[in-house]
Amino acid sequence: MLLLAGTAGCAQAQEYAVPGDVCGVEVEPALLKPLLPVGELLRQRTAQEGDEDIAGCVMDVDKLRELTFQASLVPADVDPLEVKRRNLMRAGNPQKTDIGSDARIADSAAVASTACTYKGEPRRYAVEVWVDKHPIDVDKRREDLARFIAAYLQSAQKAAGCTS
């Protein structure tokens, strides 16, 4: 009995509020929450990567990077999944999934893209999420990533003005 009481006392809680946006794009907090660890303080910061067609942000929990997000608007002849192939391999066993025009879910990452029209020109819009820690339950993490990236792709594409 003493052992159980000690174990229960060690449980940590998610003390911060889960945001309703990622990089300024509305998301359902319930889809984001499973990707975030327990902790006391969450900070979301912009991580612009030079090109105006690439936007990103990072979520830190208790001053440690936990999630990295990126959204890219690329020419129609560029395959975002091929560009990210090596990174996805490092993220662990990427598998094709039926999200957008093309998507891969790995153990600790997800990348999805869709064809769209931007300012009258055919383009591709891609979103990525990278989790800094490898999961304990790989199958659950993959399910959580798939649910999140499906919703995030749709919301981010719309926010970027890239129409189907």
Summarize the structure.
The chain has one domain. The termini are far apart. It has five helices and nine strands, in the order H-E-E-H-E-E-E-H-H-E-E-E-E-H.
Describe the structure.
- This protein has 164 residues and is of the alpha+beta class.
- 27% of the residues lie in helices and 34% in strands.
- It has helices at residues 2-9, 29-32, 80-83, 85-91, 138-159, and strands at residues 21-22, 25-26, 42-46, 54-61, 64-75, 95-96, 102-105, 109-118, 121-131.
- A 7-stranded antiparallel sheet has the order 3-4-5-9-8-7-6, with helices on one face.
Question: How many angstroms does the end-to-end distance come to?
Answer: 59 Å
**Helix/strand class:** alpha+beta
Largest sheet: 7 strands, antiparallel
SS summary, helix count = 5
- What share of the residues lie within helices? 25-40%
**Domain unit count:** 1
- Average pLDDT confidence is 89
- As a percent range, the share of strand residues is 25-35%
Order of helices and strands: HEEHEEEHHEEEEH
Count of strand segments: 9
Main attributes of the structure:
34% strand, disordered N terminus
Strand and helix map with partners:
Layout: H1 2-9, E1 21-22, E2 25-26, H2 29-32, E3 42-46, E4 54-61, E5 64-75, H3 80-83, H4 85-91, E6 95-96, E7 102-105, E8 109-118, E9 121-131, H5 138-159
